[in-house]
Structures are given as structure tokens and as C-alpha cells.
Write a structure and sequence with these properties.
- Helix content is about 25%, strand content about 25%.
- It has about 150 residues and is of the alpha+beta class.
- The protein has 2 helices and 8 strands; from the N terminus they run αββββββββα.
- Strands 1-2-5 form a 3-stranded mixed beta sheet, with no helix packed on it. Strands 3-4-8 form a 3-stranded antiparallel beta sheet, with no helix packed on it.
- It has 2 domains: about 35 residues; about 90 residues, no CATH class.
- Helix 1 packs antiparallel against helix 2.
- The radius of gyration is 25 Å and the shape is flat.
- Belongs to the type-B carboxylesterase/lipase family.
Amino acid sequence: MFRGIVLWLLNVFFVVICAESVPIRETSLGVLEGYYMKTRSGRLISAFTAIPYAVPPVGELRFMPPVPVQPWEGILNASKVAPICVQRNPYTRQKEIVGQEDCLYLNIYSPYIGNVSNIDSVTIFSILILFRKNINSLENPKVHAS
């Protein structure tokens, strides 16, 4: 009975550890929380979108060189869609102007990078397999042979 409870707890622990999370990266400006997406060919990639790289060029900053953004506190949600810069809409026959002046954002896409916690979960998974094998070997009569 005790063995069954231990194995059940280990399985629950494994499921919690290996649950898919979001990519989180620490940068010189702060922590980014992105998202995973798949390419057309099905390859998993990490995406960090709408990352500000300069103070919005509005008001007194309009037509001035970009001012670097200040570091932020906490975690920046890098899974939003950033506004496009002011431009004519190339898809309409009218000379419609679309976009915003506040548009100095980066979108970064990289191969799947996972998190440090994902690497740790592989290690923990390996330890759980070894631990489970050791529990099974304790039940083996050859181990307890007199």
C-alpha cells in the first residue's frame, strides 16, 4: 500500500514538473515572458513580441533621436501584438493612413529554447526513473536473498 502511494505521488510530481510553461528570459532591461508557436513546417519556436526598445516618440520626443527605454520592474508580457508605425495602407485603393507613432517595438523569434526549469525537469525525471527502478529492485527476491 505504501509503495502504491509513493508511486502515485511520484507520478503526480512528474506531471506537475513537466507541465508546459511559457518561455521566460532575463535581459539587461528586465524579465520577458513570451510564448511558443509553431512554424508552417511544425517546428516549435520561442516568440517574444512587442518588446519596447525606445521611449515612444510622441510629444517633445517627436522627430528626435530615439531615447532608450528604462529597465522595467516585474515581468513584461512579451506576447502582445505591437502597433505598426504610421504608413499608408498598401492593401486599399484609398490613401488611408494606418498605424501609430508609438511603434518602437521588437519582435524576437528563436528556435525553441525552453526554460531553465525545463532542463531541471529532465534531470528530475531521470532521478524519478532511477528512484522508481530502485523501489522495484527492493521488491526483487534476488536482492533480499539470504
